[in-house]
């Protein structure tokens, strides 16, 4: 654990009825719970991340993402079980295992994938700055809230209906986002609910407030995640001064499948969108090349049509990539390399930016800085080209 950092606990039970398999549903190229785990692991205030779950599938995904797993018993896993009971069980399990509990702990909801590390750190800091016992994320709220009585007569809750205040004249109100909570550990054991003692608010932007509860929420959150990922990749390209795109062929420009006719002639499936993206990229100074282990005429033919340099039949990819960089007067740190399998790992790690398609082998995904939103041969390279074009536009 990092020194002077907190434990983060993410409750994630199986059996969601509104959206079956919600917690590990793939959204913008990643299982839902992974977004929250990654935000916690990247927060300066967090030392360990625990996921408490009753579901083997969730546990496997969470463990792969870097979380430690707490098995939640069946009696704490039904629809009626509260998050608080899961948190109490998790804290007791952590303590009984010999791990020291932090003075405060962080409770995160995996249904809020737009949460950033800064939201977690900010909520922790709000608790400390205000000497509070509990803290939570919220977004500023300007709406007029009403209720109906038994005769269906409407009454204003947060306003006098006879006075219509301007937005700027209303006293600030805050809507709980449900994303991040920070609680004093001993106080939580004593009170067994999340808002005891002095409570502090950490304000987050409204664009990070949506959480996934209903099917309609999926599209809203997915679009925002995709926009964020495009911006992240474009920023990496700018900040690293990337001058060249080098990519594997099979599993990157193809769907990693091959069709073999009775005469042994092979054919592959490629994405026309990728081709158009590479065509647009030729209008920029970015160098492009394919680096493939496969010795196949289809590789050379596709590269010729796309007007990109082709290096195929390569066993030691990193050696060839290094030589190619020297010949082009480009440093390895100025390369974006896209690969999808174990033989791409060295290049992914050596490049200034390494990226892997969503369906890449685990070894490539682990080595890459960026996991693309699209599969190989199904828009992954178009996504990269669009990021380059956005980077140049800005």
In total, the number of strands is: 19
Largest sheet: 7 strands, mixed
Strand arrangement, major sheet: 5-4-1-6-10-7-11
Q: If helices are DSSP runs of H or I spanning 4 or more residues, what is the number of helices?
A: 12
Beta fraction of the residues? 15-25%
Residue-averaged pLDDT: 91
CATH architecture label of the largest domain: Alpha-Beta Complex
Number of domains: 2
Task: Specify Rg, calculated over alpha carbons.
Answer: 25 Å
Helix fraction?
A: 25-40%
What is the CATH first-level class name of the largest domain? Alpha Beta
Unreliable stretches:
none
Head-to-tail CA distance between termini: 39 Å
CATH superfamily of the largest domain: Spore Coat Polysaccharide Biosynthesis Protein SpsA, Chain A
Structural class: alpha/beta
CATH fold assignment of the largest domain: Spore Coat Polysaccharide Biosynthesis Protein SpsA, Chain A
**Morphology:** elongated
Commentary on this structure:
The protein has helices spanning 32-41, 56-64, 83-96, 117-129, 185-191, 215-239, 272-281, 297-306, 317-328, 345-350, 362-367, 380-393; strands at residues 6-11, 26-27, 30-31, 46-53, 68-71, 104-108, 134-141, 146-148, 154-156, 173-184, 199-203, 244-247, 259-260, 266-267, 287-292, 309-312, 335-338, 353-356, 370-371. By secondary structure, the chain is α/β, with parallel strands linked by helices. The protein has a 7-stranded mixed beta sheet, sandwiched between helices. It has a 6-stranded parallel beta sheet with strand order 16-15-12-17-18-19, with helices on both faces. Strands 2-3 form a two-stranded antiparallel ribbon. The longest helix has 25 residues, at 215-239.
């Amino acid at each position: 654990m990092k020194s002077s950092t907190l434990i983060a606990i993410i409750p994630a039970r199986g059996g969601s009825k509104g959206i079956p398999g919600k917690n590990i549903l793939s959204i913008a190229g990643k299982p839902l719970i992974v977004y929250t785990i990654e935000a916690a692991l990247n927060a300066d205030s967090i030392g360990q991340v625990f996921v408490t779950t009753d579901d083997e599938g969730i546990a496997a995904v969470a463990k792969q993402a870097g979380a430690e797993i707490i098995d939640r018993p069946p009696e704490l896993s039904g629809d009626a079980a509260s998050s608080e009971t899961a948190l109490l069980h998790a804290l007791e399990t952590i303590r009984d295992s010999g791990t020291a509990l932090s003075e405060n702990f962080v409770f995160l909801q995996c249904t809020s994938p737009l949460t950033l590390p800064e939201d977690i750190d900010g909520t922790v800091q709000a608790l400390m700055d205000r000497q509070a016992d509990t803290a939570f994320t919220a977004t500023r709220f300007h709406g007029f809230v009403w209720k109906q009585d038994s005769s269906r007569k409407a009454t204003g809750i947060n306003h006098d209906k006879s006075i219509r205040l301007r937005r700027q004249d209303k006293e600030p109100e805050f809507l709980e986002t449900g994303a991040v909570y920070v609680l004093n550990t001993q106080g939580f054991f004593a009170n067994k609910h999340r808002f005891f003692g002095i409570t502090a608010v950490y304000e987050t932007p409204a664009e990070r407030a949506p959480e996934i509860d209903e099917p309609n929420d999926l599209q809203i959150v997915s679009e925002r995640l995709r926009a964020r990922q495009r911006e992240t990749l474009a920023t990496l390209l700018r900040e690293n001064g990337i001058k060249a795109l080098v990519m594997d062929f099979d599993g990157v420009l193809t769907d990693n499948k091959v069709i073999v006719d009775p005469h042994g002639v092979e054919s592959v499936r490629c994405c026309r969108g990728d081709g158009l993206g590479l065509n647009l990229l030729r209008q920029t100074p970015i160098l492009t090349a394919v680096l493939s282990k496969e010795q196949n005429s289809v590789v050379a033919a596709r590269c010729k049509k796309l007007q990109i340099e082709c290096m195929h039949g390569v066993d030691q990819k990193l050696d060839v990539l290094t030589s190619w960089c020297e010949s082009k007067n480009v440093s390895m740190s100025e390369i974006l390399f896209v690969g999808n399998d174990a033989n791409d790992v060295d290049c992914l790690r050596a490049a200034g930016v390494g990226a892997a398609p969503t369906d890449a082998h685990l070894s490539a995904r682990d080595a890459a800085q960026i996991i693309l939103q699209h599969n190989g041969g199904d828009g992954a390279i178009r996504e990269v080209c669009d990021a380059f074009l956005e980077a140049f536009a800005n």
